[in-house]
Amino acid sequence: MATPHIACEPGDIASLVLMPGDPKRAERIARTRMDGARLVSDVRGIGAWTGTIDGIPVTAMASGMGVPSLSIYATELYEQYGVDRICRVGTCGGISPKVAVRDVVVASSAHTSSKVSTIDLPGVTLSLAPSFDMLRGAVDHARSSGRSVHIGPVFTSDFFYSTRTDIIPALDKLGTLGVEMEAAGLYACALRAGREALAVLTVSDHLFDGSGDLTADERETLFAEALETGIAGLRA
């Protein structure tokens, strides 16, 4: 049974999914962290790789960029392929002075101006948050391993290039750690499907502190800590 965007049988997709935005990052996860990884779908260049991590079946599949793209893949994975948990492993821009480039952020909630927070219940803004068990598992693992992680809200924007810079200081005052483009969409899809989700992010640049941004190559390769934290969340 294929969907319009995933061309494989339900058994080809594991119940646990690692979901970076970048297809190259999904392939890198499969080649460097999975055992026996095989390509099970490659529609529109979005590869889905299924193998095992420490003996546990896992699929790595990219989401593309933004809430609309991620929502397509997450919905099909949850509703058509029986996926139980998806962990977004991506990047964010730092907002808070508490975080620095290369730090890891675990998104305990996702603020957003996207319609994804209100479309199901007009007049009500949904609180978009991850699975508690996944959140706890990721944080416990990171702390027990001596990894430094930041836990707090992020802001999911529909725009990479935006003139609405006036909202960023207000988000900072509310404790928002970073800005990215997918977490709120993932959390909304999980709520609709009655499944679980988490976003673990590497800070790739900072909006205020002037520290050096990660290059495109670094964004693809320097995510080992976030990846291991995300894997722990999936396995919790």
UniProtKB/TrEMBL annotation:
<dbReference type="Pfam" id="PF01048">
    <property type="entry name" value="PNP_UDP_1"/>
</dbReference>
<feature type="domain" description="Nucleoside phosphorylase">
    <location>
        <begin position="16"/>
        <end position="227"/>
    </location>
</feature>
<dbReference type="GO" id="GO:0004850">
    <property type="term" value="F:uridine phosphorylase activity"/>
</dbReference>
<dbReference type="GO" id="GO:0005829">
    <property type="term" value="C:cytosol"/>
</dbReference>
<keyword id="KW-0328">Glycosyltransferase</keyword>
<dbReference type="GO" id="GO:0004731">
    <property type="term" value="F:purine-nucleoside phosphorylase activity"/>
</dbReference>
<dbReference type="InterPro" id="IPR035994">
    <property type="entry name" value="Nucleoside_phosphorylase_sf"/>
</dbReference>
<keyword id="KW-0808">Transferase</keyword>
<protein>
    <recommendedName>
        <fullName>Uridine phosphorylase</fullName>
        <ecNumber>2.4.2.3</ecNumber>
    </recommendedName>
</protein>
<dbReference type="InterPro" id="IPR000845">
    <property type="entry name" value="Nucleoside_phosphorylase_d"/>
</dbReference>
<dbReference type="InterPro" id="IPR004402">
    <property type="entry name" value="DeoD-type"/>
</dbReference>
<dbReference type="GO" id="GO:0006152">
    <property type="term" value="P:purine nucleoside catabolic process"/>
</dbReference>
